[in-house]
Amino acid sequence: MTKLLLENLLRFLLLILAQIFLFKNMGYYNLAAPFPYIMALMLLPVRISKGLLFLIAFLTGLTIDTFYDTLGMHAAACVTLAWVRVIFMNLTLQDDDHDSLASPGIGQMSFRWFLIYAFVLSFFHHLTLYLLESFTLNNILFTLTSIVFSCIFTTILIVLFELIFYRRKKR
Amino acid sequence: MRNLWIFINRYGTFFLFILFFGIALILVVRNNTFQRASALNSSNQITGKAYQQVDYFKGYLSLNETNLALSKENATLRALLKGSNYNNHLITNIVRDSLQEPQYSYIEARVINNSINQKNNYLTVNRGSKHGVKKGMGVISSTGIVGIVLNVSENFSTIQSLLHSDTRISASLAKSQAFGSLVWGVQAYDPKKALLRDIPNHVKVEKNEQVITSGFSLFPPGIVIGTVLETGLTSGSSFLDISVLLNNDFSTLRYVYIIIDRYSEEKESLEVKNLEND
After folding, report:
1. Which of B84, B137, B262, B263 is the most buried (most CB within 10 A)?
2. Structural domain count, chain B
3. Beta carbons of B16 and A76 less than 8 Å apart
């Protein structure tokens, strides 16, 4: 239990630091920007209570917001991500999987499942984030293009991290 | 109450989402200038649109009164226009000279009615007997001869235009001083051309020679009437018919001068005796 907590805390810390100091400066022109910090929310244990999940998502978003000077936007995006995560898991996982305390990474799930999971979650995160950022439906085509490209960018980064750090199934 | 609890529990994630998302949205709108501005702006737009629509429909209800008020206002404004005032002020400038007694003085007048396309054309001006206008006075403009006063009322007078088939004006050629009578409407009714008749055959007439008043009739001598246009016209007798291009543009006539001749009555009464002697 302590190990789980420590693991998650460490992951959060590293990803948020990486996001703030490294990925904030990265981008594909103005079209795409990566936000791999959401990986920390994706890899929270499957069985985590919903209230805690939303609270963590909100606080994570708020932390990023303070560094991006966009108070509320990342928080809203992360909350959306948490909601989508709950729905996605309800749709794809069996009942016995819900009791698992493990992270839903490549080590636990299949690669295909994780790929779709990462893509769908980051898509909804980026959708909320970019729409809130532009706050207008003018130039919607450009906004949608940046959403899709950023989403692909983030997904690739997340899958790469996961491939580097994942551990074999314990079962 | 229990059902409500079950309901909330079942859709707990959604409610949690709404709660946190709402907080985040409030933070976004309150703390980011652009988002706040555009949120306020769009809400203002919505209220503005609504008020505009209501006002648009309200406008229909008071359309009748508004129309009435506007037409009344129009009438009062129209009455205030400069053009609706009768200008009673008269400027007469007579230079007093002890050596020469002035024979002619002038009354300025504004043309208030004019025609040029009839066979017999008349003008109306805004001066009448009140200002000293009498029947038979000559009328000129800054560019030439206009006509002869025909009828006079208190405030207005009508002028028999030069463009009238009965008008005859004594005119002479500037170089030879040969005189004839200027008539209009003999062959054509062109408001730019008149005919100079009764010039003797032996007089040499050049093209573009000036035609001026002779001073024998109502007009002071030397007023430019027009220029010779064609000389070859003969009426088959021993007199030349000369086509004259009028200097005056009758279609744009605005201000004219009515000529007061101090000695015209004396002259006329003397000339009447000639006829009696015949």
Report:
1. B137
2. 2
3. no
Which burial class, exposed, middle or buried, applies to B16 when counting CB atoms under 10 A from its CB (0-12, 13-18, 19+)? buried
Between chains, do B12 and A50 touch, taking CB under 8 Å as contact? yes
Residues of A in contact with B41 (CB under 8 A): none
* Candidates B13, B25, B26; nearest CB to A86: B13
> B147 and B57 in one domain?
no
What single-letter DSSP state applies at residue A32?
Answer: B
State whether B197 and B246 are in the same domain. Answer: yes
Cα nearest neighbour of B39 on chain A: A135
Q: Number of helices and strands (H, E) in chain B? A: 5, 12
One domain for residues B40 and B102:
no
**What residues make up the domain containing B183?**
86-265
CATH placement of domain A2-165: 1.10.1760
Q: How many CB atoms lie within 10 A of CB B98?
A: 5
ipTM score assigned to the predicted complex: 0.82
State the pTM of this model.
0.49
Per-residue pLDDT of chain B (278 residues; tens, 9 = 90+): 788 878 777 777 888 888 889 998 888 888 887 878 777 777 778 888 888 888 888 878 888 888 888 888 888 887 777 666 666 666 666 656 667 676 788 888 888 888 888 888 889 998 888 888 888 889 988 888 899 999 999 889 999 998 888 888 889 988 888 888 888 877 777 888 888 888 888 888 888 888 998 888 788 888 889 999 887 666 566 778 888 899 888 888 888 888 888 888 888 888 888 887 76
Examine residue B105 and state whether it is found in any structural domain, yes or no: yes
**Residue B76 lies inside a defined structural domain of this protein:** no
Across the interface, which of A75, A80, A136 has its CB nearest the CB of B27? A75
Within 8 A of A54 by CB-CB distance, chain B residues are 16-17, 19-20
Q: Which regions of B168-254 does DSSP assign to beta strands (E)?
A: 169-173, 179-183, 193-200, 210-213, 224-234, 239-246
